[in-house]
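Treating backbone geometry as a discrete language has practical consequences that deserve illustration. The amino acid sequence and the backbone structure tokens for this protein are reproduced below.
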Amino acid sequence: MVFRMAEYYIMLMRRYHLPVRQYVIFLRDKKPLMAKSLHTERITFSYELLEISTINYRLFLNASNPEVKMLAILADFASNDSYSVVKEIVEDIRGGKESDFAESRYFKQWLFLL
């Protein structure tokens, strides 16, 4: 991953002549084993690695966008009961509407994350 991110960094700099900030969003609940930096005699490079499973799920629920809210299912539930958290996430995405969540496009997208 570090080599791919270094390549992307150079390509973006060359094309747009703008500062580049790179992030890799790690979706699994396991600890990532990938290198985040590269150090050689002539090059030093690194990128940010964000582990969703270490971020409190409430951060995602505070978003106004339902697609962002859905990421809460991958986040850290802390010491909260899983059933209660999932129920809270579903209710928040539904926005209090009485529509059938299982039929919504959000639910279908959510299943893809799981």
